[in-house]
């Protein structure tokens, strides 16, 4: 029994890691699509933007809280910011006004902050 239980444990661990990786990729695509929809709406003049923002959201929370249009309607782009299933923390952001910590206003991309290596040999933070 012990030998059998020990031989299935690495397979279960690998399956769990693969599930987390699949989830991470799906969430990255979801957030990136929301950023893209925000940028498109801003470029089409659906709402007022700050000078110098280049039409990108100031932060990820704005995708959830939304922005008011000129007609008074509120546009939202995500229901909530999902937790990073790999790093179990907030997402890293790339912005047009990056600071030394890769943060800042005008978010145009997100990434996983984990330095760990995925099953395919790439680093999560490079996805």
Provide mean pLDDT, rounded. Answer: 86
In whole angstroms, how far apart are the ends?
A: 40 Å
Report strand order across the widest sheet.
1-2
SSE pattern: HHEEEE
Biggest sheet descriptor: 2 strands, antiparallel
Strand content: 5-15%
Uncertain segments of ≥5 residues (pLDDT<50)?
Answer: none
Tell me how many strands there are. Answer: 4
Coarse structural class: alpha+beta
The percentage helix is 25-40%
Number of domains: 1
How many whole angstroms does the radius of gyration measure? 19 Å
The number of helical elements comes to 2
Which descriptors apply to this entry?
127 residues; alpha+beta; two-stranded antiparallel sheet; two-stranded antiparallel ribbon; 10% strand
Explain this structure.
It is a single chain. This protein is an alpha+beta fold and 127 residues long. It has one domain. Helices cover 37% and strands 10% of the residues. It is built from two helices and four strands; from the N terminus they run H-H-E-E-E-E. It has helices spanning 2-43, 61-65; strands spanning 67-68, 74-75, 92-95, 107-111. The strands form two sheets. The protein has a two-stranded antiparallel ribbon. Strand 1 (67-68) and strand 2 form a beta hairpin. The mean pLDDT is 86.
What is the element layout, followed by pairings?
Blueprint lengths: L1 H42 L17 H5 L1 E2 L5 E2 L16 E4 L11 E5 L16
Antiparallel strand pairs: 1-2, 3-4
Question: In summary, what is this structure?
Answer:
The chain has 127 residues and is an alpha+beta fold. It has helices at 2-43, 61-65; strands spanning 67-68, 74-75, 92-95, 107-111.
């Amino acid at each position: 029994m012990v030998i059998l239980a020990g031989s299935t444990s690495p397979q279960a661990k690998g399956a769990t890691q693969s599930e987390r990786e699949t989830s991470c990729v799906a969430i990255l695509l979801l957030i990136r699509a929301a950023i893209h929809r925000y940028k498109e709406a801003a470029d089409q003049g659906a709402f007022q933007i700050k000078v110098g923002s280049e039409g990108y959201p100031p932060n990820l929370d704005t995708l959830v809280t939304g922005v008011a249009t000129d007609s008074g309607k509120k546009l939202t782009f995500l229901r909530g910011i999902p937790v990073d299933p790999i790093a179990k923390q907030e997402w890293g952001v790339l912005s047009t006004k990056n600071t030394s910590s890769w943060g800042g206003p005008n978010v145009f991309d997100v990434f996983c902050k984990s330095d760990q290596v995925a099953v395919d040999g790439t680093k999560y933070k490079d996805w």
